[in-house]
Amino acid sequence: MSTNVTSTTGSALFSTIASNKVEELWASWYIYWGNDVLATGLLFFLVHEFMYFGRCLPWFIIDQIPYFNKYKIQPNKIPTNQQQWECFKAVLKSHFLVEALPIWLFHPICSQLKITYGVPFPSWKIQFAQIVFFFICEDLWHYSFHRLFHYGWFYKNIHKIHHKYAAPFGLAAEYAHPAEVMALGVGTVGFPILYAFLATKYASLPSIHLFTITLWIVLRLFQAVDSHSGYDFPWSLNKFFPLWAGAEHHDDHHHYFIGNYASSFRVWDWLLSTECGDLARVNRVKNANNKNEKKHKIGK
Ligand SMILES: [Zn+2]
Ligand SMILES: [Zn+2]
């Protein structure tokens, strides 16, 4: 069913057809506020708050239920309510002091780079391809900066805060120094901006829609919170898609303090021999021995 949406803001963007409920809601949001900069800023801020804390809530509840303890990666380290409360306050403060300002700058950037925000949205295939591209780029960005943050000065002065919890929990995902929040945040918002810039240069690239960027940010938030959840279930995504890092991968990072630097996938840690944990160490030694044996045989 299609719905006619007419803008009352004078913007031609919404004087068009919304073909589904989501598009209708999206258009109504912009029409309601009558100020596109305010509408985008508020949308990003609220989506971030609701999706982040909304995703943390089930993990907080699971922490209270002993049945789930068998799925906890570090079963003896259930976070206390006091720890979760302290973490919640610190993250909320950071959202207002560090992330609120850059969020309001997003709409002016969108206008400069011709990021569309009217309806209808692009096809789901285009949106899917763009989001996969952002996942791949962000993962490499995260790997590089996270690895850098584990070097001397950077660790001591910036990243140490995030490692306060050796057994992480959902809320701890964004518990970090402001410099880390900004540097890793560039990996999330920087690639859609770079993509939009390239799309203005190369006509063959489909343009990007603000809804796609919102969707990408939500998925990235879910990935960050879930990887800190501390739980690995038989139905977790990494059980069906082995390249996916999941909670097990990042929990080990917090447990061992070194290795497993990537965010979404296991590829970079595997390729660059930075996987952490006892099993990874055994496999590394085995691979090195195999290589030596092969060399030895060739030399004979
Ligand atoms: Zn780290
Ligand atoms: Zn972490």
UniProtKB/TrEMBL annotation:
Entry's localization field: Membrane
Any one Gene Ontology molecular-function term assigned to this protein's record: oxidoreductase activity
Keywords: Membrane, Transmembrane, Transmembrane helix
GO annotation terms (biological process): lipid biosynthetic process
Membrane-crossing segments per the record: 29-47
Superkingdom of origin organism: Eukaryota
Matching Pfam families: FA_hydroxylase
Domain Fatty acid hydroxylase, residue spans: 132-274
GO cellular component labels: membrane
Protein name as annotated: ERG25
Species whose genome carries this gene: Candida oxycetoniae
